[in-house]
Amino acid sequence: MQQQQDLLKSFLKYVGISWLMRGAHQPGGFYAPSPICEANVGRRYTGIPRLQPEWNSSVHEGSERTSMKVLLVNGSPHEKGSTYTALAEVANTLNKQEIKVEIFQLGVKPISGCIGCGTCAKIGKCFMRDQVNEFLEKASDADGFLFGSPVHFASASGMLTCFMDRVFYVNFANRVLDNKPAAAVVVCRRGGATAALDQINKYFAISNMPMVGSQYWNMVHGNSPEEIRKDLEGMQGLRTLGNNMAWLLKSIKAGKASGINTPEKEPRMMTNFIR
Ligand SMILES: Cc1cc2nc3c(=O)[nH]c(=O)nc-3n(C[C@H](O)[C@H](O)[C@H](O)COP(=O)(O)O)c2cc1C
Asked: What is the pTM for the complete model shown?
């Protein structure tokens, strides 16, 4: 029996379905970290990112809104991997600018793509109960967004793509993201960064979201947090991105205070290229 279990584990490890190895019997349930998964992570990540432990992530103090907040989505299955290291650099910069931050981990739970049922147009959220609605609830209180992804085959990760498809389809119904600044950040070992950036930026461009830039495109190169931190130009670009995001958020807030509101929108036209 033990031999059969070991064989099955080796096979699953070989095909890379590490999350399947997380038995429901383990503390934390089905998605508890498995020894095999931890062993894999340990091989690649020999250190943890340097972060400011005192990140200020609460939006409200009592019922009164105290300051602005940016939600940073980690679209990697690695909780403390390269993408996280890049997001942490922006988060630290935002914190220095007195902007609150929260990192939203997609984790390793499978995320379905959009099935195009149109339920969100009726109920203002997705009918599937997962990270998408969890994020959308937080998003209504956030002022800006960062979507980070590892490059997977010259694209954003499959999980982030499924997640963003559904988040932004719901947004057509409830418009909680419209007119809020956003940026994409991608990390990769070697190539495909600009294609992945283009992909993520398109969600913002169709949602009336001002896109925040930097001194270079928002990409950092490395196969591990240590390598990411060695990309000094990439890391500097992320700090510049954080400062640019803070500047834009403060400018929008100041604009609102002096009567400059978001533009009025015409009733939406949809012609579907049918003549
Ligand atoms: C399925 C998969 C596909 C990948 N495709 C690419 C790629 O096209 N280009 C590249 O430079 N790196 C690629 N990589 C490497 C990752 O982008 C790189 O290891 C990154 O640092 C991982 O970030 P993370 O720790 O946040 O997951 C790929 C990795 C995986 C797992």
From this structure: 0.81
